[in-house]
Design goal:
mainly alpha
């Protein structure tokens, strides 16, 4: 089926005013943070909107745009009605109002990304069970020599965003094997393809590396630690080949987290320190804060309270500088709730359960309910810390809250924490 020619969105272009696309994207990201939303807005996204490629924004962007321009409608912003873009209105449950819980990004954002990367039976089952159909980004599979262009790069970048969105909503179990397919295809493109411009190849390398980290995180969170280690190493190698310091810092950050989770604390400290060196020139205090927290957790695991406290102090200092336009897109999860949760990890590793419980509680209070997986994780951590602090009734109540909230969330990490809490409470 042929696609109709995109009609430029002149109304949106007028609203951008004198800002460059990159400057306006930064304004959009700041507006999103004001209302607790997460959007991965950059100059390319703004360009696609203005070119008419994105005829209707997804629900997250819709909320942000309406917040930025109070009193205007989507039509005033130059967008088409959602049902017109989709070609049909989605049926809603009886009595329900508002948007579906899981909007389909590609139906709303791009006619380029129509095919699913979910091709296996398992993947199809997982997609159907989450109600997302075939909405994940498709990466064209290369057959023989392949010319890499904008479509391929955008598909890889959107696959990364799609995987992160689904992980935020549902957790890693089941999604891991589904997500491995676009990763294989992305690296096949690199192996067999040639790009007309170096900038295009660099973007594909960065996208493939970030995709490897996203898939590695799914393996990590679902307890497949050796798979995660392999994916993180692949991303690090990609960063080194392409000279991409931002990707290198991200790879070291994840590697440090994995090493800590598997009891390799000195490796965790070294990886965090390497990440800090890579991140230093990038201009993102929040990235430095997160890497400092990774190092703090490593020292805590080694029982070195002094070094852990020093790193925690450095993390809070960096975090206090606030957001920067240079903050990596993947760090959208890292706000005050995550800061509290990671500090709780450190105090728990040092055996200070009361202090750990206090920080875990703050994480649960600060976390927006929209991010169901993270909220369940923080509550599971809180339950364990309360149990170890001897506050049995509170721990049991918190564990029940987690269990009651797990419908639609699949995370081996959360289940493991609940199992540990039950063992403590039963005295096993």
């Amino acid at each position: 089926m042929s696609l109709s020619r995109a009609v430029p969105n002149l109304a949106f272009r007028r609203l951008r005013g004198q800002h460059s696309p990159a400057e306006f994207a930064a304004v959009v990201r700041r507006a999103a943070r004001e209302i607790g939303e997460q959007v991965a807005c950059d100059a390319r996204y703004i360009g696609r909107v203005e070119a008419g490629e994105i005829r209707c924004p997804n629900y997250a962007y819709e909320r942000v745009f309406l917040h930025m321009f109070p009193g205007l409608t989507l039509a005033d912003l130059g967008f088409s009605a959602r049902e017109a873009v989709r070609g049909r209105r989605q049926a809603a449950p009886a009595g329900a109002s508002g948007p579906p819980a899981l909007p389909t990004r590609n139906d709303e954002e791009s006619d380029v990304l129509r095919r699913a990367f979910m091709t296996s039976g398992t993947a199809t089952l997982a997609a159907a069970s989450w109600g997302i159909g075939s909405t994940a980004a498709a990466i064209p599979s290369p057959r023989g020599p392949h010319r890499i262009g904008e479509a391929e790069v955008i598909a890889v970048e959107d696959a990364v965003r799609e995987i992160r969105l689904l992980d935020d909503r549902h957790g890693a179990d089941g999604l891991y094997r589904v997500a491995a397919q676009p990763l294989r295809t992305a690296y096949a493109l690199l192996d067999r393809g040639t790009a007309a411009r170096r900038a295009t190849e660099d973007r594909l390398l960065a996208g493939a590396g970030e995709l490897s980290l996203s898939v590695g995180w799914l393996a990590h969170d679902s307890g497949r630690h050796e798979d995660a280690r392999s994916h993180y190493a692949e991303a690090l190698a990609t960063a080194r080949v392409s000279g991409n310091a931002a990707l290198e810092a991200h790879a070291f950050c994840n590697t440090s987290f994995l090493a800590r989770d598997t009891g390799r604390y000195r490796e965790a400290a070294r990886a965090a320190q390497a990440g800090l060196r890579a991140a230093e020139p990038l201009g993102s205090p929040r990235l430095l804060a997160l890497l400092s927290l990774r190092e703090a957790a490593a020292w805590a695991g080694l029982g070195d309270r002094s070094s852990a406290e020093e790193c925690l102090g450095r993390a809070h200092e960096h975090f206090g500088h606030g957001h920067a336009d240079q903050d990596p897109e993947w760090m959208s999860f890292f706000g005050e709730p995550e800061l509290e949760a990671l500090e709780a990890h450190c105090w728990a590793a040092l055996g200070d359960w009361t202090r750990a419980a206090r920080h875990s509680y703050r994480a649960t209070v600060l976390q927006h309910p929209r991010f169901a997986r993270n909220l369940a994780l923080y509550r599971a951590q809180l339950a364990g810390n309360l149990a170890r602090a001897g506050r049995r009734d509170e721990a049991e109540a918190e564990a029940r809250r987690v269990e009651d909230s797990l419908d639609g969330i699949a995370s081996a990490r959360i289940r493991g924490l609940l199992t540990e809490t039950r063992l403590i409470l039963t005295g096993a």
